[in-house]
Amino acid sequence: MQRDALIGFGLDSVIEVLSAVAVAWQFTHRDPERWEKPTVRAIGIAFFALAAYVIVDALLTLAGVQEVEHSPLGIGIATVSLLVMPALAWLEFRTGRELGSRSVVADAKQLLLCMCLSGTVLVGLLLNSLFGWMWADSVAALVVAGLAIREGVEAWRGDVESPLEVLEALGERESLDEH
């Protein structure tokens, strides 16, 4: 993984922490619902910032300005992230629904995007390491950037429904089938 991709991966983590801080800040106020819209919009801005960085980084790599290197450490970090992020996102989404908080649900979507970024980084690193396909990580990153932009627009509008609802609905259906 090129040095800049590692920085991008770290930047995603920083944005994730800032998103969580925004949600925590919202709940420090007497009337957290009053601060819901600005908090969700701040999370939307975080999606846009992540997309911008990922697009620039991917385009620089595809243009040959940056070189891609093999990174066993990057593969390990991306793998751990893929294992941990889905559980954290599910817990946060569930908490957000129980609280009726769109900002907490939006932050859970940020975790899902982080998971997608981890997956694309992992696939790109593996394709580069195994087959020498240096372009694979950049192409996958551009797909993630598109998702980040879509999620940013949805957060900005206040539409923060989560893809995890599909999983939850399946679980409820299975539960009903068992009875």
What does it look like?
The protein has one domain (3-178). With 179 residues, the chain is mainly α. 82% of the residues lie in helices and 0% in strands. Helix 1 (3-26) packs antiparallel against helix 2. The protein has helices spanning 3-26, 36-62, 72-99, 102-131, 136-157, 164-178. Residues 162-167 have low confidence and may be disordered. The chain starts with a helix and ends with a helix. 39% of the residues are buried. The longest helix has 30 residues, at 102-131. The protein contains 6 helices and no strands.
Secondary structure elements and pairings:
Blueprint: H1 3-26, H2 36-62, H3 72-99, H4 102-131, H5 136-157, H6 164-178
Descriptive terms for the model:
179 residues; 0% strand; single chain; elongated
- Portion in helices: over 70%
Number of E-state strands: 0
End-to-end Cα distance: 49 Å
Work out the radius of gyration: 17 Å
**Class based on secondary structure composition and strand pairing:** mainly alpha
Low-confidence stretches are: 162-167
Question: H/E order of the elements?
Answer: HHHHHH
Beta-strand residue fraction: under 5%
What's the rounded overall pLDDT mean? Answer: 76
What is the general shape?
A: elongated
The number of helices is 6
Please, how many domains? 1
Main sheet attributes: strand count, strand direction, barrel closure: none
InterPro entries: Cation_efflux_TM, Cation_efflux_TMD_sf, Tmem163
Keywords: Cytoplasmic vesicle, Endosome, Membrane, Synapse, Transmembrane, Transmembrane helix, Zinc
Organism: Agromyces bauzanensis
GO molecular function, one term: monoatomic cation transmembrane transporter activity
